[in-house]
Amino acid sequence: MVRAIVGANWGDEGKGKITDMLAKESDIIIRFQGGSNAGHTIINNYGRFALHLLPSGVFYQHTTSIIGNGVALNIPYLVKEIQSLVDQGVPMPKILVSDRAQILMPYHILFDAYEEERLGGKSFGSTKSGIAPFYSDKYAKIGFQVSELFEEDSLREKVNRICEMKNVMLEHLYHKPLLDPEELFRTMLEYRDMVAPYVCDTSKYLYDAIKAGKNILLEGQLGSLKDPDHGIYPMVTSSSTLAAYGAIGAGIPPYEIRRITTVVKAYSSAVGAGAFVSEIFGEEADELRKRGGDHGEFGATTGRPRRMGWFDAVATRYGCRIQGATEAALTVLDVLGYLDEIPVCVGYEIDGQVTKDFPTTGKLEKAKPVLVKLPGWKCDIRGIRKYEDLPENCRNYIEFIEKEIETPITMVSNGPEREEIIYR
Ligand code: GDP
User: Fold this and answer.
1) Residue from 57, 59, 67, 52 nearest 88 by CA
2) Does residue 27 have an active-site annotation?
3) Across the chain, which distance is largest between two alpha carbons, in Å?
4) What is the SS3 assignment for 203?
């Protein structure tokens, strides 16, 4: 059975925690898109970890972690991340890397930074991990697949050809130092040696695993609203964040994805630029950010401060719908325990009209939130393990959200740790 764990919002919903938790009963966990540009924070018996490239299943010895073909593979980063786990006492995980995954090249990171510099104030808020240049090259068919590292002659020829092309841009558009093809070729051979122990035909491996009835998780990065097609374009990421893309980015049949667990955060937060209708500012935002505690302030990868807002039912219902959510996991609910009243955004007012449908970007930028206020529960709900034991106002908040998002909430997370989960 294949189950996807994906985000309904802007990312940082707590997918890492849910995946780490569900990985206990899983055999295989797969990353199918994105790269090391966003992180999952996981707190478990080994300590606190910020994973960027590895799936959140690497902490169990019975699981296999797969980097699927859809991922932007930063090879030195992968090796560093594996080493940092081992250094912190985690047993060496079983890792497989798709032979069709494409390689994030050193120049992708440079081009990302140069382009942001060129755009100045008009930038897209890139994390400068090279993700946009990577996917541009992939679709322009000038990327490198992992398998190509093992064909030395054609690799050398291709490195020369690509350098010629990149150097035109470096010289004339960015006025930056040129690439040296010899040096790049040597780097590629180093990459080959680093990744070689993990390389595998992962699509075939998964085909066999599905036939054998294994439990498989697809772990998404970011959330619906950062999807390049269905999100807040152009303030989006460069690969699809949707469960549907799991089929492509892992190389499995779409109909095998039976459950789509969409992770929904009890309030809103976003990293980077873009319209954010229910955003709050000033002291109100600082308080929520602070209460978010270790979850709060900064994105796991970028260190940029998170923007905060009230729960956005319009965006989240859309986020669940576009994921094809079969269920939702509501996270970080514990953080809201300090509020007397909790505002929830239930509609957007655009040019004097109220809508509950999530619009395209131009209209989104004009939207003003229609807020309702629900009574708070004014206590700490961490440690509660049964739904009935939650305060009534807290259950009302959950049930209100459930109705608004039109998706059953089957799990409520009331703390960052593995055990802090309430099943309904
Ligand atoms: P992801 O990218 O969706 O995995 O999200 P991140 O890892 O970037 O952010 C989730 C953050 O929330 C992490 O710091 C988690 O430890 C934390 N977290 C997850 N679930 C809960 C929860 O129920 N309560 C609290 N307080 N923190 C949580």
Assistant:
1) 59
2) no
3) 68
4) helix
83 CB-near residues (< 8 Å, 6+ apart): none
Two tokens, residue 421: 């989960």
3-class DSSP assignment, residue 153? helix
208 secondary structure, DSSP code: H
Rounded Cα–Cα distance for residues 126 and 424 (Å): 38
Q: What is the pLDDT along the chain (424 residues), one digit of tens a residue?
A: 999 999 999 999 999 999 999 999 999 999 999 999 877 888 888 988 888 999 988 999 999 999 999 999 999 999 999 999 999 999 999 999 999 999 999 999 999 999 989 988 777 667 788 999 999 999 999 999 999 999 999 999 999 999 999 999 999 999 999 999 999 999 999 999 999 999 999 999 999 999 999 999 999 999 999 999 999 999 999 999 999 999 999 999 999 999 999 999 999 999 888 899 999 999 999 999 999 864 444 455 555 678 999 999 999 999 999 999 999 999 999 999 999 999 999 999 999 999 999 999 999 999 999 999 999 999 999 999 999 999 999 999 999 999 999 999 999 999 999 999 999 9
Name, in order, each residue with C-beta under 8 angstroms of 14's C-beta and a sequence gap of 6 or more. 263, 265, 295, 329, 331, 332, 413, 416
- Tell how far the Cα of 223 is from the centroid of ligand 1, in angstroms: 14
**Domains along the chain with CATH numbers:** 2-100+197-261 (3.40.440.10), 102-195 (1.10.300.10), 263-423 (3.90.170.10)
By most ligand atoms within 8 Å of CB, the mutation choice from 5, 10, 13, 17 for ligand 1 is: 17
Question: Of the residues 20, 40, 52, 112, which is catalytic?
Answer: 40
Nearest CA to ligand 1 atom 16: 416
pTM equals 0.94
